[in-house]
Design a protein that fits this description.
Mean pLDDT: 91
Oligomer: single chain
Shape: globular
Number of domains: 1
Helix content: 55-70%
Radius of gyration: 19 Å
Strand content: under 5%
Length: 274
């Protein structure tokens, strides 16, 4: 038991350290990009978003302590179950023949297809209370990706990883999918007005995802994909009239601090079953 506790504490400490290093990299990249694109307006935007950014950092710490240390274990566990009980639709050997680059492209495309439908489910009645926390940021920045309720984060990872494991993708591909989606997710949450022009027929732009966070589409909305906009176009949920200039956030009373937001989904679910 003592060894188990020690391993957990080491995993948490490692998770905190990695989160800190990744945060520094992201901060440098996105702050530098904002200064290049916006100049002094980037500083004014950062000041407006200061309170929300502090709350996002609090959520980053919560995630690092509660969910992040288990992601690697979850990948190994899910892959092990699918292999042991032969639940894979596609044998893992198939991806060896495809090659590393082909497997990487395939896992990102398949992962985005799965997350598109999972994301739509998160905007339904029973899953929305947990997902509403992510949407509560009224000054969306790259740090908004850190604002996820542990229940939402855990179910997101479990569903996405299970779908990809069912397709026989190796563990390294599952991890690669998580890493790319994290960084591209930060990018499309960043406060940039880009629509990509013709490239938006294929990829999700920051403007496209910003419309997804518009307050007037709470609980339903559009633009559910993270990487490939083709899924929203194919299933009728694409909406980008131009750069997003409408209020962001949710109409739900989720609370203005991490403790209230942590409790909110459980209170909302309790009310639904009364």
């Amino acid at each position: 038991m003592q060894n188990f506790v020690i391993r957990i504490l080491l995993a948490v400490a490692n998770s905190l350290w990695m989160a800190f290093l990744l945060l520094l990299v992201s901060a440098f990249v996105f702050c530098s990009l904002a200064m290049l694109v916006k100049g002094d307006a980037a500083i004014a935007g950062a000041r407006r978003a200061a309170a929300e950014s502090r709350l996002n950092l609090t959520w980053l710490v919560i995630d690092t302590l509660t969910v992040a240390p288990w992601i690697g274990l979850l990948v190994a566990l899910v892959r092990g179950v699918f292999v042991r009980y032969r639940l894979e639709i596609v044998p893992e050997a198939t991806w060896s023949s495809v090659g590393t680059l082909g497997t990487f492209i395939a896992v990102i495309f398949a992962g985005d297809f799965a997350s598109y439908w999972r994301h739509r489910l998160e905007h339904t009645r029973w899953l929305w209370p947990a997902h509403a926390i992510h949407h509560s940021d009224t000054e969306m920045t790259w740090l908004t990706l850190s604002r996820f309720h542990p229940v939402n984060r855990a179910t997101t990872s479990a569903l996405d990883i299970a779908f990809l494991a069912m397709l026989g993708f190796p563990s390294w591909a599952l991890v690669a999918n998580e890493v790319l989606r994290n960084y591209y997710g930060q990018f499309i949450h960043a406060d940039f007005p880009w629509t990509y022009g013709p490239l938006e027929f294929l990829f999700v732009s920051p403007a496209m995802h910003r419309w997804h966070h518009a307050r007037d589409v709470t609980g339903s909305g559009s633009n559910f994909a993270t990487v490939f906009s083709v899924f929203d176009r194919a299933f009728g949920t694409h909406y980008v009239p131009g750069p997003c200039d409408v209020p962001l956030g949710v109409i739900d009373k989720v609370g203005g601090n991490a403790i209230r937001q942590l409790v909110y989904p459980f209170v909302a679910w309790a009310r639904k079953v009364q």
